Amino acid sequence: MDQNQLKQLVAQQAIKFVPDDCIVGVGTGSTVNFFIDELAKIKGRIKGAVSSSEASTKRLKEIGIPVYDLNTVGPDELPVYIDGADEVNHHLHMIKGGGAALTREKIIAAVAQQFICIADESKYVPVLGAFPLPVEVIPMARSHVAREIVKLGGHPEWRMGVTTDNGNIILDVHGLQIAEPVKLEQQINQIVGVVTNGLFAQRRADVLLLGTAAGVKELS
Ligand SMILES: O=C[C@H](O)[C@H](O)[C@H](O)COP(=O)(O)O
């Protein structure tokens, strides 16, 4: 099976976590795009979605799924958030933000009762950090944040030409072997000018659906 087939497989499995009549949290990325295709097949049994990016919102609307403003949706109405990851470890800590949607993703993940991560097996790693850690930064703070990240041992690189849905820039931090994800997530978020970073460790996934050649493995 190729990578896209594995992504489709986990997207199909994720549907079983979507209760009837609910509002479902929808992430961003190529794996989630397969999930949106699956949602199209069951759209009659859900109320709608909240979305973590303009790109996912557009896809959801195209297939006729109503997209709610998160401010009008409480945790009781949001049983599940489904999203991909760039890397995930056995604690279900993740690196996210390869598609620059990390901040809205983290906000929806904070509200949802359950976070289901869907990923193909290439994303499953023993130690996070080979994938450069995305950090969303207020544009005027770019150089300051970059200098502070160097003090933490990282090598930040400005993702040129990319503006997030929130009007900010992304620094991709190379060279980190992330032994303590919760601590590093906090340290980077404390730098003035950082909106948030792509470590999802304080709020990790509750369930990982991992697409492998032998089928979908469920870890929790
Ligand atoms: O900003 C993007 C998100 O965090 C994605 O969920 C992540 O990059 C994984 O995307 P993909 O499913 O395309 O590998």
Automatic annotation (TrEMBL):
The keyword Metal-binding does not apply. The keyword Chloroplast does not apply. Pathway: Carbohydrate degradation; pentose phosphate pathway; D-ribose 5-phosphate from D-ribulose 5-phosphate (non-oxidative stage): step 1/1. SUPFAM superfamilies: D-ribose-5-phosphate isomerase (RpiA), lid domain (SSF75445), NagB/RpiA/CoA transferase-like (SSF100950). Belongs to the ribose 5-phosphate isomerase family. Catalyzes the reversible conversion of ribose-5-phosphate to ribulose 5-phosphate. This is Ribose-5-phosphate isomerase A. It comes from Vogesella alkaliphila. The gene is rpiA.
